Amino acid sequence: MDISNIDNESKGLETKFELNNVFVAASLDGPPWYKPKVTDSKLSSDDVTDSIPMLRKMEEMLNSKIAKGDENPSFSSGDSIQVASDEDFSFTHANVFDSIMSTTSSCNLFLQILFPFIPAGLGMVFAGYILDIVQHWNLFIEVPETFILVPALLGLKGNLEMTFASRLSTLANMGRMNSNPKKIIIANLALIQVQAIVVAFLASGFAVILAWIPKGQIDWSHAALLCASSLTTASLTSLVLSITVICVVLISRSFSINPDNIATPIAASLGDLTTLGTLSLLGSIFLAAHLNETWLNIIVIVTFIMATPFFTYVARKDNGTVDVLENGWSPIIFSMLISSAGGFMLESTIKRFPKIAVFQPVINGVGGNLAAIHASRLATFYHQHYAFGTLRETLSSHFSFKRAFFSNAVDAYSARVLLLFVVPCHIFFNWVIQILHKGSSLPSGPLFTSIYICAALVQVILLLYMCQLLVAFLWSIKVDPDCASIPYLTALGDLFGTFLLFLIFASLSWFSKD
Question: Domain SLC41A/MgtE integral membrane, which positions (predicted)?
């Protein structure tokens, strides 16, 4: 394959080259290589796709030149690279300039995120509305440990579905969904079931332990109820949300829209509402069974445990899922522990400030959602442009707050756009909350709104700052950020959000006394 006249433009990573004397223009951003622009009908899409290894190697060579201090790296005549196919590519001319993450303008990026983000936020608003209602149900009154499960199970959306959305978006953006997508999809669905069952089982056990600490004793019937409710809720909601994510990614791909901007908010829009509603309904059913058919909870637990080896077998059919299955447990387990700590905090604070239940899914969900979008975009960018384990900048540079938000770096560009959502979206969501709870004693007014918006900004700024640092760190130690970053970020979002909500309501209580 003879390739010459390679030119990478500074805006948008659009690579132009001649392939067998035929001019080709193909974008390296968005969903790359789905629809390569070819100027000669004799050249097939497969011919362009076959050049991907060459281009990846080209980027690795440029990164090595940058690392050696070359401020304007380029290929000179005679430079060559060896790819996996053992075919040697020689270059006659190439100039490569630094570029931004995407050809997508700030306005287009904002609009792409806005349309799925608003339904996602409304889903969180209605989740808060439901939580405010169900906290008075017998399930939450007789088994208050259920409150500890709420952030942990809602966090599964971040640990599993949003991670799956990020992973699938990266596969789509790199063109790996073009061959045998059915195998990838089935293996990932099975993987998520394994993760959901294991994490739900651990979350219910951790909830029992946290409930035992102040009481000094364990109610085993309540423990069985929590475990059965947690397992069934996690499995069913994960299946529904995973299928939804698959559809969103495939549809986005067909319209040449970056699924990184779409899939994670869509997963979030249904996640909170579906999970909380399912937990409340199934928990109430299992509570009734706990009083009459005590065997039902045990049967449910045993069934899910026995199904786990089967799902594991199916998940091992794909190499990508095998890696996650073997090495991807630490993020989701540690994030579950962090979310459960937030749940323990919620159980304590909701007794003092019952109206926290209305705002908890909203502030936690918005922050976690924005951080997940940021992480998903950054993970895709790293996969597309850097060799695994290498960074263009030093890791220490990512500690700079100025670099994270005010530089020309790709993560700063996304962070500035994502920060634009915080104030107007929270004002809109609070307005919807006030309408849904009209006539109730919900806090409102300029003082509450000001404190609430400031707290939300603090939460999102912290999460976005930690996101760019965490993704860079994970990449540098050769851990896939698609699998590891989002669970930590959404769990920290839960913890920060619940703590900040407590500070908001405590401050209002203090001001009202004065």
Answer: 150-281, 360-504
